[in-house]
Specification:
binds 2-amino-2-deoxy-6-O-phosphono-alpha-D-glucopyranose, 29% helix, seven-stranded parallel beta sheet, alpha/beta
Amino acid sequence: MKLYVVKDKATMGKKAADVIAAEMQTTPHFVLGLATGSTPETCYAELAKKNKAGKISFENVITFNLDEYAGLPVKHPESYRSFMDAKLFKHVNIPMSATHLPNGNAPDLDAMCEEYEMMMDKVGGVDVQVLGIGRNGHIGFNEPGSSLASRTRKVKLTKSTKEANGPYFKAPDKMPDYAITMGIGTILEAKKIILMACGDTKVDAIAAALEGPVSVTCPASALQLHPDVTWVVTKDAATGLKMEWPEQD
Ligand code: GLP
């Protein structure tokens, strides 16, 4: 486990993009797991910059997003497909056919979730999974109480997640109550994980995830069980940490 405490969101994005780019350059058919939310925006902008400068190519990259709202039209500005198009896919040379998000409008959601997992398996699994963290410690949309062995499935969102994400919707009550998310068990199968966190709303979540017991009360604490997790956290999000962490190069 590596922890980088950095000064701000821009530095966090740069550091995370450097880690991802290094993996991309050494893995021929790279499978990238992606997250949404405001946290990874600076990382995606940096990846786009590196792509434009010819340092990395997305030509042979396949992506799988963590989650998507259930029942929200894919063209809705707050759908995670719209987010990914706007923040990353439109700015890099990735074939759109290589980008995958769970289909929150599938007639049979259980079958879609199973197929989503099968598609990831078929390409050899996720090489690097990008994560943010919810204020309540959720990863993807695995809310507190999610089984640490959970798989891709439909979930109900908590009040705190609706309060955090609701303001992005023009009418907050229009935010869906349900979402599709990769499970915690699914996420833990990624070969490498990079979690970013910024801002003081994440202090408790980061402290519980890194230094608390592994528990369903903080889904991100399950990452303590993974052998290769890099945490990139801004200093204002790291103020709840008590341990002396080794300084990283
Ligand atoms: C959202 C997403 C998560 C994300 C988290 C934090 O609900 N489902 O994948 O990490 O909440 O969002 P933000 O980065 O905007 O704080």
